[in-house]
Design brief:
The complex is a heterodimer of chains A (about 290) and B (about 325). Chain A has about 290 residues and is mainly α. Chain A is built from 13 helices and two strands. The chains are: A mainly alpha (about 290), B alpha+beta (about 325).
């Protein structure tokens, strides 16, 4: 009796949160689907009625569509590789006993607290500026012609900026994982004649498998939708237009809400394809 | 071969001296047990021999070669850890193969040794399982298998049975002893359990705070403990050690009497006391006797059964030829 009672009470108390979350998710999703089948131009006549799949066809046949998909995937892939490789190395480094460990760890995590807009602007103006940037001075010091980073290596620059932001996250998760590694296992492998490199490959890396998977999945979710870094640096020029940015342009710059909504639905599909692939590749790591 | 000699080996962690300079020789083929209360430095000593800790000073000589600076893998020793330290993501087969793989041994030789080890340790049916799917005893055997295949000159065991339940512990104790009979390889075994030490060892090293209190065969330690500490540590239940007036009467500062060397009577005897808790084991009965005027509780061991209730009066008489006498420093006097 008591349990049934408390169960219904629990449901009642959870209800507001569930309703709020469902509304939060379902309302925008339904509206996106709704508008994607309409010709809706806010500044040029407003709602002009149903158009069927016209928006979907137009979005996909636009010359910007496939490049934007590849740009998105390149940024996601590039940042994942950089953050995970460097994250593992940094985690191992930070796990070594050293003087000032606490402060060093906080410093390493700091970039994660800087908001994306700010960090992208700092990078753009203080490091990558071709006249006054630190990199420009460095290049000049060695007698080289300063690079115009955001024009000549635009995609790479954005990958660099985003990697810098996400490296702390990867490091943090991997550090906690590495701390849970049983020291006796490392000692046993040392007695078994494993070199430091073999110990890393056979013991440490397999132990980190699950943490790497989690970093991969979480980062992918967030990286698919990066926007601020592109907005404040290249504005989508020089081959840095991601799918998210393309949707932004369709909605706000072209003032075509129907077309943008159709793009949004494509973005959902792309995210799901990526998610399915990832789960196929690394999902087994999550099983105990 | 597997003769290990420690010469003035010392270990400090920072300012703390865990092991003061210490000499010890372990002969080839000997089953040596390091025993002592927790924190006495026995595991540290084992890790020094293994090479997992660096000595602060002194020399470790293995088979007449100075091994003090030799890395662990090159010392030709194999170690079984308390937590077994199996590699959780590898199958049993791969776990056992790991040291051979690291030594780049030919594949068919690896397989031959794995099969032989699995057969000897009853692991043949489990070779493709992961450690997580095995019971504690099976994991223990995998850990032993992993150390056997390297054919080391000596085995090091760091409290290998402490994670097993009582029944399994007795079984594994026998298995390890039989393994030693079969391989005739030097084994060094660390434990805090004096029963393990007594039953398995050729030679027991009793340690306290890094000092070696006594080295000898199990029966030597039982019959001729060199001091009060060893006397109290070896034997179960613990030896009764009495001080003061009654001890003076028997002609020493401290007198030790093992529980099995006290005669009990209901009518008369040397000391009169009151029965406290009586532990009936069937084959034996342990009686804890209070208020004997000796200052300490006395434990008595009686073969078979006896009618003794809480609060009964009882008389105790020590067997005079079995007394252990100690001087003021706690050292044995004959």
């Amino acid at each position: 009796m008591a349990t049934q009672h408390s169960r219904s009470a629990a449901r009642l108390m959870m209800a507001p949160a569930v309703v709020l979350l469902l509304g939060w998710m379902l309302v925008p999703l339904t509206m996106t689907l709704w508008f994607s089948f309409k010709k809706y131009l806010p500044l040029r006549g407003g709602d002009l009625g149903w158009v069927g799949f016209d928006n979907y066809v137009r979005f996909v046949t636009s010359s910007s569509f496939w490049p934007s998909v590849w740009t998105t995937l390149t940024i996601v892939g590039g940042v994942l590789i950089i953050t995970i490789v460097l994250g593992v190395l940094l985690a191992i480094l930070l796990n070594q006993p050293m003087w000032g460990q606490g402060i060093v760890r906080i410093l390493v995590i700091a970039p994660f607290f800087v908001m994306p807009t700010v960090s992208a602007l700092v990078w753009k103006n203080m490091f990558m500026d071709p006249v006054n940037g630190l990199f420009a001075h460095l290049w000049k010091f060695f007698g080289a012609e300063p690079m115009v980073w955001l024009t000549e290596a635009s995609l790479e620059s954005i990958i660099l900026i985003v990697s810098w932001q996400w490296l702390p996250f990867a490091t943090l998760i991997l550090l906690t994982a590495i701390q849970s590694l049983d020291g006796e296992q490392l000692e046993a492998s040392e007695m078994d004649g494993a070199t430091p490199l073999a110990r890393f490959g056979y013991i440490v890396l397999p132990h980190l498998g699950r943490a790497i998977t989690i970093v991969l999945l979480i980062q992918t979710i967030f990286l698919l939708s990066i926007f601020a870094e592109i907005f404040v640096t290249t504005q989508g020029a020089f081959g840095t237009k991601t799918l998210t940015y393309l949707i932004f342009q369709r909605v706000l710059e072209s003032q075509n809400i129907g077309l943008g909504s159709a793009g949004g639905v494509y973005a959902i599909i792309l995210a799901n394809i990526v998610a399915i692939f990832l789960m196929r590749i690394v999902g087994k790591n999550l099983d105990a | 071969m597997g003769r290990i000699v420690l010469e003035k080996v010392q270990k400090k962690f920072g300012e703390v001296e865990v092991i003061p300079p210490l000499d010890l020789t372990i002969e080839d083929g000997e089953f040596t047990v390091f025993v002592g209360p927790s924190g006495c430095g026995k595991s540290t000593l084992l890790r020094l021999i293994a090479g997992l800790e660096d000595t602060t000073s002194g020399r470790i000589v293995i088979d007449d070669a100075d091994a003090t600076e030799v890395p662990p893998a090159k010392r030709g020793l194999a170690m079984v850890f308390q937590s077994y330290a199996l590699y959780p993501h590898m199958s049993v087969r791969k776990n056992i193969a790991f040291p051979m793989k690291m030594a780049k041994m030919p594949e068919d030789e690896q397989n031959r040794r794995i099969e032989a080890a699995a057969k000897a340790l009853n692991l043949t049916d489990y070779l493709d399982r992961k450690p997580g799917q095995l019971s504690g005893g099976q994991r223990q055997r995998v850990a032993i298998g992993r150390s056997i295949v390297r054919e080391p000159s000596a085995f090091l065991f760091d409290e290998p049975l402490s994670n097993l339940d009582a029944a399994l512990r007795v079984g594994m104790r026998l298995e390890i002893s039989e393994l030693h009979e079969r391989l005739k390889t030097t084994m060094i075994y660390v434990t805090h359990d004096q029963v393990e030490a007594m039953t398995m060892a050729d030679k027991i090293v009793v340690l306290r705070a890094g000092h070696i209190e006594q080295v000898g065969s199990p029966l030597e330690l039982y019959h001729k403990p060199r001091n009060e500490f060893v006397a109290g540590f070896i034997g179960s239940p613990k030896m009764n050690i009495i001080h003061g007036e009654e001890a003076q009467k028997l002609g020493a500062t401290g007198v030790g009497i093992r529980p099995e060397h006290i005669d009990v009577s209901k009518t008369d005897g040397m000391w009169k006391g009151r029965v406290g808790v009586a532990e009936h084991l069937g084959s034996d009965t342990f009686i804890h006797v209070h208020d004997t005027g000796l200052g300490e509780m006395i434990t008595v061991r009686i073969t078979g059964d006896i009618e003794a209730r809480h609060g009964d009066t009882i008389y105790l008489t020590p067997q005079m030829d079995q007394l252990h006498k100690f001087d003021q420093q706690g050292l044995r006097v004959e």
